[in-house]
């Protein structure tokens, strides 16, 4: 599809900001996916293109953390596999759902995530004792991976919260291992979207370049400052993008609300 140069520039800028925020605490998809939808990209193509660009940013952040010694690949290999399999299943499922359902469902998920970020547990810098065993970590990773393949925005934040609140990791190590699990889910979801023909390659690769730069900058910022300052920004972004999506008169959810009120 053809997009105006100013729209492409806007999406590239959104990818940089999303890559930066995603590397700190996750949730970069809260910026890029609604931005793609607002630009007029069809829901499934928006999901596939978002997976393409975010995979590059997530990989960059992961390797940045790994080079700094913050990633235990052996311990989290099985959770990464669970994330991959869950995401593949989610991506397979979403391609069999009416796209109009997605357009109406996305604002509801954004609102739910805003509530989650407001009410979620506080994150700390130091490691603590784990509250879940290997089996629990596998199942949680598979469930979040399924969500990533099905929808995506906020996945990194869910992984980080799981690793910090349940697996007992400190913020930086939690964010670092989030990149590993999120990269696995991104690659699975992207593969499914490529097979389904739902990726806008030129746009996705242009956004990927910006996502790489944002991911590298965000990973360095996370290692230096931690991720707690990002939560208020994520809450504001969830609510702002929900309002933007519902501002579209053709949005199915808005039409349903109007019908109920009318």
TrEMBL record:
Cellular compartments per GO CC: plasma membrane
Main location: membrane
Keyword Transmembrane among UniProt keywords: yes
Keyword Nucleotide-binding tagged: no
Topology relative to the membrane: Multi-pass membrane protein
Alphabetically ordered keywords of this record: Cell membrane, Membrane, Transmembrane, Transmembrane helix, Transport
Superkingdom to which the source organism belongs: Bacteria
Residues that span the membrane, as ranges: 7-32, 76-94, 100-119, 131-150, 156-175, 187-209, 229-247
Localisation: Cell membrane
Family that this chain belongs to: Belongs to the 4-toluene sulfonate uptake permease (TSUP) (TC 2.A.102) family.
Protein name: Probable membrane transporter protein
Organism: Allosphingosinicella deserti
């Amino acid at each position: 599809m053809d997009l105006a140069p100013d729209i492409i520039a806007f999406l590239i800028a959104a990818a940089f900001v999303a890559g930066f925020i995603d590397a700190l605490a996750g949730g970069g998809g809260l910026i890029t996916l609604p931005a793609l939808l607002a630009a007029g990209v069809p829901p499934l193509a928006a999901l596939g293109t978002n997976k393409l660009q975010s995979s590059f940013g997530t990989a960059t952040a992961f390797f940045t953390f790994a080079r700094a010694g913050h990633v235990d690949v052996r311990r989290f290999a099985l959770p990464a596999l669970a994330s991959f399999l869950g995401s593949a299943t989610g991506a397979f499922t979403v391609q069999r759902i009416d796209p109009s359902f997605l357009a109406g469902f996305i604002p509801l998920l954004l609102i739910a995530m805003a509530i989650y970020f407001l009410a979620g547990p506080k994150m700390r810098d130091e490691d603590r004792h784990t509250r879940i065993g290997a089996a629990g970590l596998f199942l949680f990773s598979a469930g979040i991976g399924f969500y990533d393949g099905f929808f995506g925005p906020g996945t990194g934040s869910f992984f980080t919260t799981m690793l910090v609140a349940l697996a007992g990791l400190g913020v930086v190590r939690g964010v670092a291992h989030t990149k590993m699990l999120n990269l696995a889910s991104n690659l699975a979801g992207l593969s499914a979207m490529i097979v389904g023909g739902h990726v806008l390659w030129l746009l996705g690769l242009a956004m990927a370049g910006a996502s790489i730069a944002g991911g590298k900058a965000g990973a360095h910022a996370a290692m230096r400052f931690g991720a707690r300052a990002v939560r208020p920004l994520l809450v504001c972004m969830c609510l702002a993008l929900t309002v933007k999506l519902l501002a579209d008169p053709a949005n199915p959810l808005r039409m349903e609300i109007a019908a109920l009120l009318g």
